[in-house]
Structure formats: structure tokens, C-alpha cells
Amino acid sequence: MNLRLLVLMLLISLNLNSFAQADSLKLGDKYWEDQLYMSISYDIMRSQPQGAETSGFSYSISVGYIKDIPLTKQGDFSAGIGLGYGYNSFNHDLQLIDESTIQLGSDISTNKLRLHNIEFPIQLRWRTSDAVTYSFWRVYAGVKLNYNLSNKFSYQLNSNNQTIEFSNVPIFNKFQSGLELSAGYGAFNFYMYYGLSPVYKNATINGETVSSKITKFGLIFYLL
């Protein structure tokens, strides 16, 4: 079975269990805010090599499940550990010449990087909820660990319209991490991700280490 389909089926099953739990709770009961989440964000590459520019709209979509672990009797503080899937589409200005060589974009039009990742969010959570309240203020902060399932670089040459593609290149950093923050009321919340790990490993341009990192701004939706 396709791994991405298997992950999605697992997330749906876990969330159905959390719905069953919520229906049986009463005010004052101890509760767990297990949640299905979905985020959509505008993405940028920061710490790019000198001369590199962002060359179009970049975005990402994530969906996953977070297990809630209450830290206080009132339930206002908790931890969260999750599992999810993320897709990224970057328009960027770094051109892959072969599987281990990168340079600034030259004689190209479209230049995309597409990623499929497994995500592992780990959070500390503050909220104003109780066992029977489904809309409340929240601030969730923590780290997200990412493991890359596949990466695909593609660009089109201006000179002859030829499309060049590379998949699962060794200079791409398959293990990445970053800080994340979500805050808001109810289902709609502001979301930010600040990547700590470089996108590439052991990559240089004109002797300069390529230290590109990912930053995301967008919305995240939490469903009980």
C-alpha cells in the first residue's frame, strides 16, 4: 500500500477515536485534546547564497494528528506529540547541475523543488478550554522534526525549452527540524515555522556554503 495513503488512513482512524472520547465527557472531567490538524502556508527560503533570489510563489500543505498529554488537572497546559504528512512546492533560484553540484540559476525559466515529508510535531500547549468547550484561545509552541520521503528538482532551459529533472539527490538534507508556533481562537489559527536545519548538506557555490533554510507563514486548522 502507498505509504502516504497508509499514513492518511491512520490519521483518520485516530481522529475518529478522539470524537468518541469527546462525546462522553462532562464538565470537570479530565480530558485530552487529541486533534487532527491541517495547515497551509506561504514559504520562503532564507539565508540564501549571495545573488540568489526567490523566483515565484512557494507554498506547503500539512495534515496530521496530535496526541494530547495534559500536564495540569485543569487541562490548561499540556504537551502534544504528533505524526503527519507535508507537501512543499518551492520556486527558487538555485539550479542543480548534477546530483551533487548546485549553482545560481542561469538560462532557466521555471525552477521548482517539490518535497514529500513525514512530520513529527512536539509541542507545549496552553489553552482556555475545558472538557466540553470546543472553541477557545490557544498558543501552541514547539519543534517539528521532518523526514524527507522524496525530493524532486526540475527546471526548464530557456535556450531549447528542455526540462531537466533530478530526484532524491544526495545533497538534500533528509532530516530537518524547526521551531513552530500557532496561536488563535477556535479552528482558525495563525501558524509560523522557522527552520533550523539547512536544506542542503555539503553544498557550496563559489566556495560559499549553501545554508538555505525554510520559513513558513500561514494558517493552521485544528479539528477535535
Automatic annotation (TrEMBL):
Keywords: Signal. Residues 1-20 form the signal peptide. Residues 19-199 form the Outer membrane protein beta-barrel domain. The keyword Signal applies. InterPro entries: Beta-barrel_OMP_2. The keyword Signal applies. It comes from the Bacteria. This is Outer membrane protein with beta-barrel domain. It comes from Tenacibaculum platacis. The lineage of its organism: Bacteria, Pseudomonadati, Bacteroidota, Flavobacteriia, Flavobacteriales.
